[in-house]
Design goal:
The complex is a heterodimer of chains A (about 280) and B (about 230).
Chain A (H helix, E strand, L loop, with lengths): L1 H7 L20 H12 L8 H6 L5 H13 L30 E3 L4 E3 L1 H11 L8 H4 L7 H11 L13 H15 L10 H4 L5 E2 L2 E2 L6 H7 L4 E3 L4 E3 L1 H11 L10 H12 L10 E3 L1
Parallel strand pairs in A: 5-7
Antiparallel strand pairs in A: 1-2, 3-4, 5-6
Chain B lengths: L1 H24 L17 H11 L16 H4 L3 H7 L8 H12 L14 H9 L24 H4 L18 H5 L3 H12 L21 H12 L8
Helix pairs in contact in B: 4-5, 6-10
Classes of the chains: A mainly alpha (about 280), B mainly alpha (about 230).
């Protein structure tokens, strides 16, 4: 359990109130979460003590281990490993890549999130057909997609969310995502803001995260996460799909530009806060 | 730490190089059929474009109220006005417009406002079933009393079940307010179209949008007002 060994290293450098870029870099997800709880007193962050107890044994670690193997193994018709895939920081560089996505990729001319980028590399670099189960199956801990996403995202644990807004396309997508976030529609007039604009409110027993409270929002967007109630690791696109379903909006296509715009806005909203990866949620 | 910093710095340089290359050779190609350059569109225009022109949503799928899902994303005037607030409290000009428009939508039962069966109302208040589409579709024929009212999602009502806190608690609703014609009308109005009183509220327009039928609303009203209802115990 290599991951656990790494987390056991005591943190000597985390002194000082402001978040230096590396303040949380060697902390386990549950330690990062505890700091956010201590600083904010947030009811959302504090709502599942049992889940927090399980975080050191998060089943997502095993999913990530399988993901690492998949990542490094030559696969697909072109027998290539994903070490040739550029996630924004150069081919094969995964450390810190996830907290800077969605980002613009010159080779596709598109702003892409992690899932979209993985699909791109698996279909181009590795030569998988788009309907190959390796690419097509997006959900569940047993899917290649979730194994790979969990492994890659974990390499950003503790790093501050820092999606690039330098390219005009990144800015455009973020700003459109903001419009979408507040856009009321559907038979019930819901927007994302209906549930995620105020701190401490609940839907039934579930405390909701507030996009305007960065401590809360950092955990809210920390996917992949094991969902205790689903007994599966879930992705950020899965969360988005679930929200829109409850909102009575039409189904959204994973990796679509509207989905990327929303992720661009919501990742920007957590800027500077440490990512909790992998997370464990209710 | 040192290693991470070095890698981060190298990454930043690489990213800058990529960005520079992107800007000179390949700028802003994220375009869709019939659409312009994303970076040249206003945020509002791009948002509309993304919804309707980029196959981002499953717009063609049939929905429970008839027609296709596309209609659900086309905003009516109240939705447009309230979305513009971006989560901020409603200003008086918007409030006046929304309130006036919303009052006109309220239709009353032919025989006047009546209270139905609080037991059915209790089930409807609890149920969050109905109108969901996408990876799973709610089959309304499977719900005995029709699609639910979703009341408990946001309101605490009777204390035997945990309700949400997006809306105010309604525990003891009838007990505290009595059941005069005026309070029955007010309550009916708020269920039917809450924007008539609370412009740009988060509460759905249960009657105006046809989410519950006249009869279903009478059951929910009974749940709120009937002295025997757990709400008033």
């Amino acid at each position: 359990m290599l991951y656990k060994a790494a987390f056991a290293v005591p943190l000597a450098l985390a002194i000082g109130a402001s978040y230096a870029a590396d303040r949380f870099a060697d902390q386990a997800p549950e330690e990062i979460l505890q700091t956010l709880i201590d600083e904010s007193g947030s009811a959302y962050l504090n709502q599942s003590p049992q889940n927090r107890q399980m975080m050191p044994d998060n089943p997502a670690y095993w999913v990530a281990e399988e993901g690492e193997e998949l990542f490094k193994t030559p696969r697909g018709p072109k027998n290539a490993s994903l070490e040739g895939c550029d996630f924004g920081k150069g081919p094969g560089v995964v450390e810190g890549a996830y907290v800077e996505m969605p980002r613009y990729f010159a080779d596709t001319g598109k702003v892409m999130d992690l899932e979209t980028r993985l699909v791109h590399c698996m279909t181009t670099l590795q030569g998988f057909a788009k309907d190959d189960p390796a690419v097509k199956k997006r959900h569940g801990s047993g899917s290649d997609m979730m194994k790979l996403q969990t492994y890659i995202a974990m390499q950003s644990n503790g790093l501050p969310w820092n999606p690039s807004l330098d390219h005009p396309m990144e800015k455009a997508m973020r700003d459109a995502g903001e419009v979408l976030f507040y856009r009321r529609a559907g038979p019930m007039d819901f927007s994302c803001n209906t549930c995620h604009g105020v701190t401490g409110q609940r839907i039934r027993a579930s405390v909701l995260p507030n996009i305007n409270e960065p401590h809360e929002w950092s955990k809210a967007i920390s996917w992949p996460a094991e969902r205790a109630g689903h007994q599966n690791v879930r992705s950020t696109q899965h969360r988005l799909r679930g929200c829109l379903w409850q909102m009575r909006h039409p189904g959204i296509n994973a990796g679509s530009d509207a989905s990327i715009a929303l992720l661009s806005y919501w990742t920007d909203a957590a800027r500077g806060q440490p990512a909790i990866l992998p997370d464990l949620k209710r | 730490m040192l290693k991470r910093t070095t890698i981060a710095a190298a990454g930043a340089i690489t990213a800058m190089a990529l960005l520079t290359a992107g800007c000179t050779t390949n700028a802003a190609e994220q375009t869709a059929k019939g659409g312009g350059d994303y970076a040249k569109m206003s945020p509002d225009a791009l948002a509309e474009h993304l919804i309707f022109e980029t196959k981002s949503f499953k717009l063609d799928m049939p929905v429970q109220e008839g027609g296709t899902a596309e209609a659900r994303l086309k905003q009516d005037e109240v939705q447009v006005l309230c979305s513009k607030l971006r989560g901020k409290p409603v200003d008086s000009e918007t409030a006046a417009k929304v309130t006036a428009m919303s009052r006109e939508t309220i239709k009353y039962p032919a025989g006047g406002i009546k209270l139905g069966d609080w037991k059915i109302g209790r089930q409807l208040a609890w149920s969050g079933f109905g109108y969901r589409v996408g990876h799973r579709n709610d089959d309304h024929s499977k719900a005995k009393n029709g699609p639910g009212g979703n009341c408990y999602n946001c309101h605490q009502l009777a204390t035997d079940r945990t309700g949400g806190t997006i809306g105010p608690p309604l525990t003891g609703y009838g007990k505290l307010r009595g059941s005069s014609d005026a309070i029955l009308k007010y309550t009916y109005d708020v269920i039917y179209n809450p924007h008539a009183y609370f412009a740009c509220t988060h509460m759905p327009r249960i009657g105006a949008k046809g989410l519950l039928t006249e009869e279903q609303i009478s059951h929910v009203m009974a749940y709120l007002f009937d002295p025997e209802s757990p709400v008033n115990k």
